[in-house]
Amino acid sequence: MSQLPNFKQSLTQLIACPSISSTQASWDQGNLEVIQLLGTWFEQLGFSIDIQKVPGAHKTSDNKYNLLAKLGSGEGGLLLAGHSDTVPFDERRWQSDPMGVVDKDDKFYGLGTCDMKGFFAFILQACKGLDAKQLKKPLYILATADEETTMAGARFFAQSQAAKPDVAIIGEPTNLVPVMMHKGHMSHRISVQGQSGHSSKPSLGVNAIEIMYEVIGQLINLQEKFRLNYKNEAFDVPAPTLNFGAIKGGDNANRICGHCDLDIDLRSLPGMSDDELLHWLSESLKSLAEKYPGRISFEELHPSSPSFEQEKSTNNEECFVSIAEEISGHTCCAVNYATEAPYIQQLGCQTIVLGPGSINQAHQPNEFLAHSEIDKTDKLLIAMIQRYCL
Length: 390
Known about the structure:
CATH class of the largest domain: Alpha Beta
Order of helices and strands: HHEEEEEHEHEEEEHEEEHEEHEHEEH
CATH architecture of the largest domain: 3-Layer(aba) Sandwich
Strand content: 15-25%
Mean pLDDT: 95
Shape: globular
Number of strands: 18
Structural class: alpha+beta
Helix content: 25-40%
CATH superfamily of the largest domain: Zn peptidases
Oligomer: single chain
Largest sheet: 6 strands, mixed
């Protein structure tokens, strides 16, 4: 049996395994290398290993896998979960090789150090010395595919119901502050089909940009309706949001624009359904659809991610939110970004998002994980394992 790596060594090896997920085919990669590496390590620690190919992952690559490692037997227990993929990067904005770990100024720099391969390096260290015979309940480790795009790995795992833990921790970077609530996410493309023609004869064409101008006006009104009609003060942005992310139309200044696309992003509050958001969207554009019949359409860019809320338990059930607050030393909070938590919650377990590092480092050039996170994270994971497995 080869010797297991220490924290820095395991982090370095994980970062060196490319596993970018992207909607652009030129960037999108498989994740099997990092999954197999994790499988090898946890197998050496006595975990049973199950590697599953993920159906329905992004169309640019079918080389996407989940890993479920299990130590111990019986019902319930603890699930530690995270995603194995990273976002693309702009090498020109990095001061070091994104696929290597640079240890400098009490920080580990590298793509995925914070979001979120580093979490698996922490788990590996926390699991050293665990004896399956001592576990009263099982410990599960889940590594998923494609969180940064389709969340296909988490969706597949939720459908498979391959584990039924009592509680689950999603190790996204939260500065070790437990997150019990986050917004949902959905994105759509609104398309306007016009009629191209020579710019000197406007009456012979239909300018898609001009119609899109009216569409945007209606959507700005919808933004205001969200602000006035929905509010959750647990969030620092208390209303649902609607963002204009990208627009494209036309090909030349002297041609009437024949087609225009607008990509929008909607972030819902807990309790709001996708159908409710789509109703608002449809209603806001209804008058324009009647004014320009057959010219305005919208489609989903990728499957939506639901909002998440873990309520505090009542009666005699042990409250995971309270336990997380006690062990972490922080009060639970709400965040505006989306995670895999609502899918893991479908296993029937109490779920929180809690991990090392700051979300401010995620998706950024020169991403890093501070040395100061090491002892705190190690103690937290060991405390959680002792509480729910030993």
